[in-house]
TrEMBL record:
Compositionally biased tracts (Basic and acidic residues): 521-531
SMART domains: RRM
Disordered as annotated region, ranges: 507-561
Keyword RNA-binding carried by entry: yes
Species whose genome carries this gene: [Candida] anglica
Protein's UniProt name: RRM domain-containing protein
Span of domain RRM: 577-651, 652-733, 748-827, 841-912
Length: 944
């Protein structure tokens, strides 16, 4: 029993209604007082729960607790009434068979009125009749009731209606229909059965389409599988969207044990369903209730608020509801708690809504208020966006500038331009945007030249100095005289010289670093080879000694091996420094586990595994072995009422490679779940090596990992007629499984031909190509004697493939008197995907995870039409060239907003990707403050 003061806790809830923990403390306190069997305490508890339901949905443990508390009520009549009220409440959020069934049974057994029961039957069938898996449970209750109290014709109609819907027990339903006819109208048996058979046959044809998805879901409750299921059913939906709504509600109910974090994978399910019902063809009218529940389920996710606010104009009293949502997301501080890219979507929705309302209003007080709020949010959002520094497009800042321009407030617009120019002074596009802004507002040539000259003065720090210098020289040629233009040429030449010096210095530093890293890798390989040799010799020695060995020998052997392994490096070692915690309470959270292990060290990562038939488990990763040993001492300690087990989680992870390139992350996880429960999967970044194709699959125990190796190693998988043999091994983190491929595979290398054998050295090539981007190395095969410096050709490797593509401009230029040929170097092992040129057949796909490869993108984009080629920039985006121009046009409509490998993709032009690629990190400088309207300033003073 808790000693908390319920009055103080109730005040805490009133002061902070969006604080989930405050609600939980009050409810927990009141539950403790229920032991006194005081009816008034139950009423207080129910009031507290209903208050929380305004802001949050019930979790599975909360549902269980509520039922348990109702069963404590001694008055049977009152208990029944409270239970009916409870199910009515739960069904409003989770209208699924799991809760409809006990609700209907309770109504029938407690002899509620016929009108109430029949209305509940109607509502229950409306929500569950399309539940392929469990709808038969509702039909049984309804038919049993009607066959007892209603005429034959009414029950017959219900039997026929049941046969018209595909469901798992369709065969059994037809047999029950046949038996019903035999009992009640045998003379007309054949006529009724013919009618029923037509409906049954039609439903049978659809069953196999449902069975495919249901079988997959029975193996793995995964949001992506639900999304695919809903999307497939949505294509053929004929009941006003009821089929997809029923599936969606089933999926939501299947995820109610989720911890509702802003990074939950189940958010993608909500977004997929919401985008589906945006289609006018679905005729969906309950959009507000769905979006309200989205916020209550995920109150810390920017995405839930963004969708809600975007639709506020459609709601009754939409402006008031917008203000309530705005108040909530500010008080829970999603700006700082959620990731920037998601918050950006919310910020755009808020500013777009506010400027739209400001446009539509007049001079009334409400409209002036929304303008004040717009200025307040624009000020706050711009400050955060520039500090967050995660958006190469500067979307928030540019939208704010456009809003101020529309409001005629050029002073504040210019302040924002100055802010991003000062903070991101190393980005060429920002300088050009500043020029465009001033041109829009009538700036004279002198102002434009001054901005560009300031950029040229900063050329050594720019991401694309050649672009700025070229723009400045063009402007000088247009707006100034010959003498000024000659002076600008000299200044430009000096700037380029300084840029090239810096590039050469950086190239040398990178070469030195690469040499050092290569030396470390060679050392690791030597250590690994020595370990393998030592293990082999020890095993041979043991066999010769007939496995006779003392415990002390074994201990020394382990110590020697540990010492060798630990000298390999201090990189992250998930397998070695992870512990497993089992028998956890159902309501366990990351915060509780951090508190539980606070004396052991700060966990690097926590994963909670919810299983339907057993208590939750968790894996906790620490930084070193000492923290792991400390954590293991927490074994048999209690969290709540549960005595938890803490064990080391070594050898529970397998390393997998050589799966088909087009196999998606979800397909890989689903395939390997065939060995047992998966905790998670890790895929490598492809930023520096697009040919990497391996992953780590983490299981709930070492035995399952061993089973996975036994089951999957060597298995054959087919893709596009090619056979791939899986390689599956227990992960050994001390062994580097992947090697970096050569730069040609990444498109970062150029091939230069027709070089003068005796005059061109590597220094000549480095000086020539440094202006196109940072050089990683120059390779010049030695000549064959007679004073030859080269063999007529060479290679230059850049840091990025953008620089390599820029370097093609040198094709045909003369080096030491001879015209050279320059092209992108081809790898020895062709990738099979060519670099896509900018043309009308090409689109860019942005916001891709850096673990996605070209084949997966090709498979994704092929939903629109045949894909000719893919040019991937990992972690940034990809250029996709279609075979048909009509497909590239449709791609924007079909693919934009789609969820692909956990990200919502954006479709753009080739220029959009180019701007993203050349974006760079910004430096930090003092920023001017936005001017805030006096009314907002006064309001802030009143708050203070």
């Amino acid at each position: 029993m808790t000693s908390w003061d319920p009055i103080a806790l109730e005040k805490s809830v009133q002061d902070s209604p969006y604080d989930n923990d405050a609600h939980n403390r009050l409810i927990s306190c009141l539950r403790g007082r229920l032991q006194d069997n005081q009816p008034e305490v139950y009423e207080e508890l129910e009031k507290a729960r209903l208050l929380k339901l305004k802001f949050f949905v019930l979790s599975q443990s909360e549902i269980n607790n509520w039922i348990e508390d109702i069963k404590r009520i001694e008055d049977h009549e009152n208990q029944t009434k409270k239970m009916l009220d409870f199910y009515r409440i739960v069904i409003s959020d989770y209208p699924v068979v799991r809760f409809w069934k006990p609700y209907l049974e309770l109504q029938v057994h407690s002899k509620c009125s016929d009108d109430m029961i029949k209305q509940s039957f109607t509502d229950a069938l409306l929500h569950t009749v399309h539940d392929y898996k469990d709808s038969d449970q509702i039909w049984h209750i309804v038919l049993e009731y009607f066959e007892k109290v209603e005429p034959f014709e009414s029950a017959l109609k219900l039997h026929l209606k049941r046969l018209s819907y595909p469901h798992r027990t369709l065969q059994q339903s037809f047999e029950e229909f046949s038996a019903f006819i035999s009992r009640n109208d045998a003379p007309n048996y054949e006529k009724h059965v013919v009618t029923g058979n037509k409906l049954y046959s039609k439903s049978c044809k659809s069953q196999r389409y449902y069975d495919i998805h249901e079988i997959r879901l029975a193996k793995l409750n995964n949001p992506q599988l639900w999304i695919e299921y809903i999307g497939q059913v949505g294509k053929y939906s004929s009941d006003g969207g009821r089929e997809v709504t029923t599936l969606f509600e089933r999926a939501v109910a299947a995820s109610i044990t989720d911890n509702a974090s802003s990074t939950s994978p189940w958010i993608s399910l909500w977004l997929s369903f919401i985008y589906l019902i945006y289609d006018p063809k679905t005729n969906f009218t309950a959009i507000e209730s769905i979006l309200s529940k989205f916020v209550r389920v995920y109150p810390y996710s920017s995405k839930s608020y963004a969708e809600y606010i975007r639709n506020c104009p459609l709601f009754e009293n939409g402006n008031q509801k917008f203000l309530v949502a705005r108040d909530r997301f500010k008080k829970v501080d999603v700006m700082h708690s959620d990731n920037y890219d998601d918050w950006k979507i919310l910020a755009l929705s808020v500013l777009s809504y506010e400027i739209s309302e400001a446009r539509s209003g007049g001079e009334d007080e409400d409209n002036l208020d929304i303008v004040d709020i717009l200025y307040e949010d624009a000020t706050e959002f711009v400050e955060f966006a520039t500090n967050a520094n995660n958006d190469a497009f500067h979307t928030i800042e540019k939208l704010t500038i456009s809003i101020f321009e529309e409001l005629g407030d050029l002073e504040n617009a210019r302040i924002v331009v100055g802010k991003i120019l000062q903070k991101f002074s190393d980005q060429s596009e920002v300088w050009l945007y500043s020029c465009e802004f001033e041109k829009r507002h009538g700036a004279d040539p002198h102002t434009i030249l001054k901005i560009l000259e300031s950029a040229v003065d900063n050329a050594v720090n720019l991401d694309w100095p050649e672009r700025i210098i070229q723009e400045w020289l063009v402007a000088q040629q247009i707006y100034t005289g010959l003498d000024e233009y000659k002076a600008s040429l000299l200044k430009a030449n000096t700037a380029i010289t300084l840029v090239n010096v810096k590039r050469l210095h950086n190239a040398k530093r990178r070469r030195d670093q690469d040499d050092e890293e290569e030396e470390i890798e060679q050392m690791k390989e030597v250590v690994k080879n020595e370990e393998d040799k030592m293990e082999e010799e020890e095993a041979h020695s043991k066999r010769q000694k007939l496995d006779i060995q003392t415990p002390d020998d074994n201990l020394e052997e382990k110590q020697d091996k540990t010492k060798n392994v630990e000298t390999i490096g201090s990189h992250r070692n998930r397998e070695k420094f992870t512990i497993r915690v089992s028998n956890l309470p159902q309501e366990i959270t990351e915060k509780t586990l951090i508190e539980f292990f606070k004396e052991c060290g700060q966990p690097k990562e926590i994963k909670i595994i919810q299983e339907s038939d057993r208590p939750p488990q968790a894996t906790v990763e620490f930084s070193n072995q000492q923290e792991v040993f400390a954590a293991i001492t927490r074994d048999m300690k209690k969290i709540g009422e549960n005595e938890v087990r803490v064990t080391q989680a070594e050898t529970a992870t397998v390393w997998v490679t050589n799966f088909p390139p087009g196999m998606t992350h979800e397909e890989i996880k689903e395939y390997f779940s065939g060995a047992g429960q998966i905790v998670g999967a890790r895929f490598p970044s492809l930023k520096f090596n697009q040919n990497r194709r391996f992953c780590y699959i983490e299981y709930t125990g070492s035995e399952i990992a061993k089973q996975a190796v036994s089951k999957f190693n060597g298995q054959e998988l087919n893709e596009s007629g090619k056979v791939y043999h899986l390689v599956v091994k227990i992960s050994r983190p001390e062994v580097k499984q992947d090697r970096r491929i050569n730069a040609a595979d990444e498109g970062r290398e150029i091939f230069i031909q027709n070089l003068d054998f005796k005059k061109v050295s590597s220094n000549v090539l480095e000086e020539l190509f440094a202006k196109f981007g940072e050089i990683e190395k120059v390779s010049l095969p030695a000549g064959k004697g007679n004073g030859q410096l080269n063999n007529g050709y060479g290679f230059v490797t850049f840091k990025s493939n953008v620089s390599a593509n820029n370097a093609i401009q040198a094709d045909g230029s003369k080096v030491e008197g001879r015209p050279i040929k320059v092209s992108i170097a081809q790898s020895v092992k062709q990738r099979g995907i060519t670099t896509t040129n900018k043309n009308i057949n090409t689109i860019s796909i942005l916001n891709l995870d850096d673990t996605v490869n070209s084949e997966q993108i090709k498979k994704f984009a092929s939903k629109v039409g045949p894909v000719k080629s893919v040019d991937l920039h990992p972690g940034i985006g990809a250029l996709v060239e279609y075979e048909n121009v009509t497909d590239s046009g449709r791609a924007s409509m079909v693919l934009s907003g789609e969820v692909f490998e956990g990200n919502i993709v954006e479709i753009g032009t080739t220029d959009d990707l180019k701007r993203k690629v050349v974006g760079a990190k910004a430096n930090t400088k003092e920023k001017p403050k936005l001017m805030v309207p006096a009314s907002v300033a006064r309001r802030r003073k009143r708050v203070l």
